[in-house]
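During the second year of the project, the team shifted from modelling isolated chains to modelling whole assemblies. The rationale, set out in the original proposal, was that interfaces cannot be judged from single-chain predictions alone. As a representative example for this report, we include one of the complexes processed in the last quarter. Its constituent sequences, exactly as entered into the pipeline, are reproduced here:
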Amino acid sequence: MGFEAELRHSGGSVEGDRPSTLATSSHPVTGWRKASYFLRALLAKPASALGFIIFTLFLLLALFGPLIAPYGVNEQIAADAGQPPSAKHWFGTDNLGRDVFSRVVLGAREILGLAGLGTAIAVFFGTTIGLATGYLGGWFDEILMRIFDGLLAMPLLLLALLLLGTLGPSKNSVLLVIIIVYTPIVSRVVRSAVLSVRQRGFIEAARLRGEHMPYILFREILPSVLPALAVEAALRFSYAIFLVASLGFLGVGVQPPSPDWGLMVREARNNVNQIPWAMYYPAAAIALIVIGVNLLADGIKRVLLESQ
Amino acid sequence: MSSPNKLIKALFTLVLLSAFLLQACGAQPPTPQATQPVTPTETPAQPEYPAPTTPPQEPTPAAVGRRGVLRVATQPLVQVDPAMISSDPEVFAANHIYDYLVDVTPENTIAPRLAKSWTVSEDGLTYVFQLEEGVTFHDGSPLTAKDVVWTFNRLRNPDSGYPTADLYANIESIEATGDLEVTFKLKQSNPFFLFDLSDNHALILKENTQDATKFNGTGPFKVVEYSPEDRLILEANENYFVEGQPKLEGVEILFFADQTAMVDALRGGQVDLVMALSTDLYSSLKGESGITLLDAPTNQFDVVRLRSDRAPGKDPRVMQALKLGLDREAIYQLVMAGFGRIGRDSPIGPMYTTYYSEETPLPARDIEAAKKLLAEAGYPDGLKLDLHTPDTGDRPELAVVLKNQWADIGVDINVIVEPESVYYGDQGWLEVDLGITGWGSRPYPQFYLDVMLKCNAKWNESHFCDQEFDRLATIAGTTLDEAERIAAYKEIQKLLIERGPIIVPYFYTQLAAIRSTFQGFVLKSFSGRSDLRPVALVE
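Output from the structure prediction step:
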């Protein structure tokens, strides 16, 4: 309510019936104010606040992991192999004498980086394709969407396994898989949002003004589909985390000795009777971050809906 | 859209997630002492056989002394034709349905089985076997020399594609020289020929057997029911030729996909014997009442090998540097957790007590010397290598430990873990530069030298070719003088430590667990050859 009003005034542009101007602000002060309003609205609900806190925590781990972790990611202390959690090793050690706490902390960068980069690229391609197909329509739209239908008809994990089987397991392959799997999904969401605004007055106006297509796509249409896109991107990010962990667990993703959480669960499950903590902590980390990102995505969606 | 709703949703998600993860990992419920453990989904339904505790029925003359059904948990069988079997459970099942001509004891010596006696000519080229009298197949027909001749001719037929064709290429002829007498003639003397005759595949079939799923053997047990991927039900062969054997009424081989489930079933009383246990599951059974733990030394090992026919392995100093970069004790403790034995870079392990030698010392870890050797070989700044490994057993862990230790000498390892079907598929394992391969236990060591390290060896994965090695291996594999063979093996072990292309970091121990009410079970190095004939149920 108040937030929406604030947005309209601070944005300063009042052409047509454009619903939101999130992307058109230029002044740094108004940018900050918008962000702080957004944050305040987000933190108003406990669930979203919890999601925000969890996500921020993991983000900090990802950024400052090497400063926090007491041991190296691959440091093997043979004498301490299979130790239960203690003051020396907070989460215990695995069967190879590696500190589980350090590996969980350092794994945050691994998984957030991979899932984040993959999602960002997928969102970029998905948005571009979605905008173009939604706006242009016709045979271009038809062909691309039928291809994406084909891709989406396959179960996601199966498609990922097929791709990795062909590419061979590595970090780059996982990245490529996230992009290939999520680009069609993002582009469909964006496309449907575009279809709903394409016929509206401000687009017509821009066309009559003689604006070229990229301007219409990115300056006129994109801001109006941004709320849908933001929610979609946050959701994709949480699924990407889950996908990276799943592929690691299945042994076809990131390769050892990477501290990928899914891979850590896989490695620890042979010894789960003797050294259960080596499995529980990375598993809990996966669960926690997926929940955190999901709550955050829900919060973002709520704030954006309220602001419209 | 109220916040408590969100929290409940979040909690629910957490529970679901943990459930998914726990289930995916085959974890157990945290109460192992529960009276009625949850039956894993892979477990077949309760056996319909009378439980061992059932009071014995009115004894009939034939069944005197025979009682009890032993239930064994194994992986499912893939092959049932003896010529094609290879895994532990396949050999285990076949070993109880059929008989070998001669058998290998748990001490790795030769014992009679269908052949009650034999003679060997002075030149070691002619073997004459006398078969047991009155042996019948399960269909009632008698065993004759012709069946033995047919069986081995089938196995050695080079057009058959059977894995034994190479093994038996040295046989000149096989003849039935009497109703119950078979004569083998060899092209070249072979001191291990009797072991070759007891190869896992060499189970005696009825002449002209076409359909292996009829299971027409002479063995101690007959097949009652085989349902693939579920179970194999066996009952005692009342006409078995060995007096007083088998002592059990029957054997049920129940198939499980997962070893944790097998051990759960053992704890819960649904099975009585589990073999080829991982060290972790074995340790978890310690102190369990009513269960006897068994172990046997083996010559099963993982070999880390570097191709020696192209760079960087072409320069033997690279392999020497890699060997100097190893902390062998740490590898043994981390990967083997104190089980098994430390290896000495040769396939001739401590199980072969007469041939194994510790005479040549293994070089201790020396980072500087290793770096110097690498520099001399043309890698002053270290080198980058892909390390391929199958995803089974302890091999991925070995790869991780190697990466760590070799980082110290400037060798940057990129670990690539592959499913076995990929690692061994398309002969890929013979192509890669650096790889980890698992080798099974054999009753004598010559096999490894012949198929793995000789210049023209079939599975020469390191592409090693050393004239001196070939000379020594040929002497060891043909001489009839045991002292000469021992000397040759000693030389070979020295040569492999000095310039061999392989690292053998450890030898495994075979681990198993059996319900204590069964006695007389002796675990063998290759668990599939373990013998249930003398096993009896005691209350």
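Confidence is low (pLDDT under 50) at residues 1-26 of chain A. Chain A has eleven helices and no strands.
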